[in-house]
Amino acid sequence: MKKAKLLTASLLTALTMTMAPVTALAFGLPFANQAQTEESYTFKSGLTEIKMGDEAATVIAALGQTTKAVFETDSCAYQGKDKVYTYKDFEVSTFPKDGKECISALVITGANVTTPEGISIGSKASDVTKIYGASDGKYGIYRYDKGHSELTFYTDAAGSVEEIEYIYKQ
Question: SS3 of 88, please?
Fold first, then answer.
């Protein structure tokens, strides 16, 4: 009888261990060895995805040549230099963290690029709220938070988007 209970317990344990990954997948849960990534707003330039707070080296390399010299200044919050990389229609700002350069902000300045959701310079504030949801729009500013990022749309008096800004929030 003891052997039967021990065998049953062993079989249940083995079955549970083999089914855990399947049930995790079925319920959309991460596996134990999977890192959980926090959802945030991202920007895409071609095939390059730019996520606030991520390490900048691969992004900067993928984006290629800047249109202006890289602007550097002493970081007021970290040891090292804050940098601004200027490309056609957008700028990427970085900050030093743990010996690496990380993305702190991205500003869309030209009408030739859009957010992944389809908003660009010149879009109407009503399009912004239709896609991203309600925002008070006080002073023509529409601000949205997701995870460790903030996405802000600045509009003119006529309600047209003049600038789009992604910011890393720590």
Answer: coil
Q: How far apart are CA 99 and CA 81, in angstroms?
A: 11
**Integer distance in angstroms from the first to the last C-alpha of the chain?**
59
Strand, helix or coil at 135?
coil
Within 13 Å of residue 153, how many CA atoms lie on the same side as its CB? Answer: 29
Residue 134 in tokens: 């309600």
Q: How far apart are CA 68 and CA 88, in angstroms?
A: 9
Structure tokens given for 138: 């006080």
Q: Does domain 42-168 have CATH number 3.30.230.10?
A: no
DSSP 8-state class, residue 35: P
Radius of gyration of the chain (CA): 23
DSSP one-letter code for 136: -
β-pair type (48-51, 71-74): unpaired
Both tokens assigned to 160: 């047209």
This prediction has a pTM of: 0.75
pLDDT, tens digit (0-9, with 9 covering 90-100), for 103-160: 999 999 999 999 999 999 999 999 999 999 999 889 999 999 999 999 999 999 999 9
Phi first, then psi: give them for residue 15, nearest 5 degrees.
-65, -45
